[in-house]
Design a protein that fits this description.
Elements lengths: L8 E6 L4 E6 L19 E3 L2 E3 L6 E3 L3 E3 L5 E5 L1 H6 L3 E6 L4 E5 L1 E2 L3 E3 L4 E4 L11 E7 L6 E12 L14 E5 L16 E5 L7 E7 L12 E10 L10 H6 L7 E3 L3 E5 L20 E6 L5 E8 L12 E2 L9 E3 L7 E7 L19 E6 L14 E3 L4 E6 L14 E10 L9
Parallel strand pairs: 10-12, 11-13, 19-21
Antiparallel strand pairs: 1-2, 2-5, 3-4, 6-7, 7-9, 8-9, 12-18, 13-17, 14-16, 14-18, 15-17, 20-29, 21-28, 22-27, 22-29, 23-29, 24-26, 25-26, 25-28
Length: 428
């Protein structure tokens, strides 16, 4: 008579980390489990979700997954998704897990990684006025930064006189770094909240009001993805791989990685230049950082091509607004400008004398309607910097109503890192 064996399928998890594993102990009883992925005869499908057989080993580590609507979810089990108050949106883990969308709205709290903050009724627009607040609690004590990705972000535009966010305003409190108030249209933008290791949580506040002269509320939408970033250090004082990949350097509101990319000021959009365009926001003081990649010693910035206006376009539109449009640098940039450390029109050397610059110096501040490191230029030119870390500092004051400053759009720049010509200044 054949021996009878009892096969026990254990399910265990820790809610603190959201880790779930399914194990079988068949090998202890002499039953072979040839692969971790069972043959098709061992699978059953229930509502699109694979049903586990007795010989499966599957892990759910809350890894990020792609939801059916194109959003970002966490891969977990159906019971865990329900416990998180999430919305199932497709499967993950080769069909064994649920891609769970977790989102919170006004007066709620975000307590876990990979959670959305959305307007009430999203994806429908939000027309109410008042204050919408969400509290950002750490999932673990070692969380030191929170990255916000604005997948959808549309609030009322600033006032047309001073470009201030007086009707609608997005603001953050409880952070170590200063977060500027923003409004308008910011899909695809991001920011880093440096929260340190204190116990006080950060808060996002979105204030909405009825702009004067409007008989209908603005169409508002937001869907903001939050990523909690740990600051884990080894005994040698170095960041672990995960922390090194995600964590932004101190003082960086925005952090770009990769050999090339696009950087835009908040609320930038190509528009016709007029006193009512007013897309450049007042009271912006922050730093944009670009990670220096291995083998690259410099960076090139090039103004974005303008699909709306005739050349030279308005990809760079920071006061003063002169006729004809020209570039300005350093002493000519007092109220609104960007700084690029030792900006030059030639890679690896100071400003080119042939282009009218001083051969022994480089520019720091850039402004005007033309992007160039040489003042008085009527045609945009590439700007290079070999100073590390790679960064842009953006400054606007709170006065935009004066002549030559109304209607500015801000800036849109494409960057591309430049390979080293020698071993000097290389990042290993």
């Amino acid at each position: 008579m054949k021996n009878l064996f009892l096969i026990v399928l254990f399910v265990f998890g820790t809610h603190a980390t959201g880790r779930f594993n399914l194990f079988d102990f068949s090998n202890f009883f002499g039953i072979n489990s040839p692969t971790t992925t069972p043959p098709s005869t061992n699978l059953k499908y229930v509502g699109g979700l694979k049903k586990l057989g007795l010989v499966n080993v599957v892990g759910f580590n809350n890894n990020e997954c792609l939801a059916k609507d194109g959003g970002r979810g966490k891969c977990t089990t159906a019971p865990m998704c329900k416990e998180l108050g999430g919305i199932p949106s497709g499967t993950c883990a080769d069909g064994y897990g649920i891609c769970c969308i977790v989102q919170r709205t006004c007066q709620g709290s975000i307590n876990t990684n990979s959670t959305y903050f959305v307007n009430p009724g999203y994806p429908n627009s939000f027309g109410s006025t008042g204050q919408c607040t969400v509290t950002l609690n750490r999932e673990r004590p070692n969380i030191c930064q929170i990255r916000l990705d604005f997948e959808v972000f549309s609030l009322a535009q600033p006032d047309v006189s001073e470009h201030r966010c007086v009707f609608d305003r997005f603001e953050v409190s409880g952070t170590v770094n200063q977060i500027p108030a923003i409004c308008g249209d910011n899909p695809g933008q991001h920011m880093y909240l440096h929260i340190g290791f204190g116990e006080k949580p950060a808060q996002i506040n979105i204030l909405t009001s009825q702009p004067l002269g409007l008989t209908f509320p603005p169409s508002r939408n937001w869907r903001i993805f939050t990523t909690q970033i740990p600051c884990d250090y080894t005994n040698a004082g170095l960041l672990t791989d995960k922390g090194a990949q995600l964590q932004a350097p101190p003082g960086c509101l925005q952090y770009y990685t990769g050999f090339s990319g696009r950087i835009k000021s908040f609320n930038f959009n190509f528009d016709t230049l007029s006193p009512t365009s007013s897309r450049q926001l007042s009271n912006q003081q922050y730093t944009i950082c670009v990670r220096q990649e291995s083998g690259y010693c410099g960076i090139r910035y090039r103004v974005c091509q303008d699909p709306v206006n005739a050349p030279p376009g308005l990809g760079f539109s920071l006061g003063p607004n002169t006729v004809p449009a020209v570039s300005a640098t350093d002493g000519g940039c007092v109220s609104d400008y960007i700084t690029i450390p030792c900006a030059s029109d030639t890679y690896g050397s100071p400003i080119n004398l042939n282009n009218g610059g001083n051969p022994s110096v480089c520019a720091q501040r850039l402004c005007g309607q033309i992007f160039s490191s040489v003042a008085g230029r009527a045609i945009p030119s590439d700007v290079y910097s070999t100073s590390s870390p790679f960064e842009i500092r953006y400054y606007t004051d709170n006065v935009e109503a004066s002549a030559g400053e109304q209607g500015n759009l801000g800036f849109c720049l494409n960057y591309k890192q430049q390979m080293c010509s020698s071993t000097s200044n290389q990042i290993p």
